[in-house]
Amino acid sequence: MQWFEQETKLAHDEGVSHPECFPFFLPSHKPNGRAILLIHGFSAAPKEMLSLGKFLQENDFTVYGTRLPGHGTSPQDLRTRKAEEWQTNVHHGYHSLLEMGFKVSVAGSSTGALLALTLALEQQPDKLILLSPFLRLKHILAPFAGLLSYLVPYQDKTIPETESPFYYQRRPLKGIAQINRLRKQLRGHLGEITTPSLILTSTGDATIAPGTAAAIFHQLGSSNKKFHSYGDEVPHVLTTSENPQRDDVFQRCISFLNSPT
Fold first, then answer.
1. 24: β partners
2. How far apart, in whole angstroms, are the C-alpha atoms of residue 126 and residue 249?
3. pTM, entire model
4. Helix H or strand E encompassing 233
5. Which tens digits make up the pLDDT trace of 108-119?
6. Taking Cα atoms as reference points, which of 192, 255, 194, 203 lies closest to residue 233?
7. How far apart are CA 57 and CA 95, in angstroms?
8. Dihedral sign computed on CA atoms, order 181, 169, 40, 240
9. First-to-final CA distance of the chain
10. Short-list 169, 177, 184, 180, CA closest to 151
């Protein structure tokens, strides 16, 4: 577990202080040879995936929740980070679990789902779970974030006080420009991904463009893929208590992971 200790130390050295902003490792109580890498979304923290991680641990999976560089620290830190750093982090977590002898699945939320997809272009995870994935963001100016960042460095977002330790209220536009780079990497290549995949989304998602998750579903090259859209009452982030359908999300995840390939 030296690799996990190194990731924890790195988080500390980069300024992470809140316990739930550190990466987490949850060993299975009944090891079954399967592990899952959980990837949180942009401007979030590992806590976003912790409840799902605990649920999967209870269902015999070993779980690693990574911390993407620039997260759990400060918006100023995130502003300096590149998409390649996030991808390197995800690859390292994936290969670390492989080296422990596990069959590894990957689940990502939002931008974490994009990172799971870019990983699947190069590797062959056992299964993919894509929570609120997107090829287009809803904000009409999102494609121009790189240029706009020189005029407006940050986008302010209202965050409930209870969630402020885990989500940035000021989101750097240079970070959104890195998301655009991930989107471009996937464009035209989703058909190359053959990993069994589950996509969950909602019509109540105010962050991503309507229909963009369904577009990913149709373009994926996997012959084993499932899609479900929740209603207007379900927000962008599917894994936290703000989602009234969170229990259903978790059940769909474990059913898919336990289904035959």
1. 65
2. 19
3. 0.97
4. none
5. 999 999 999 999
6. 203
7. 19
8. negative
9. 29
10. 177
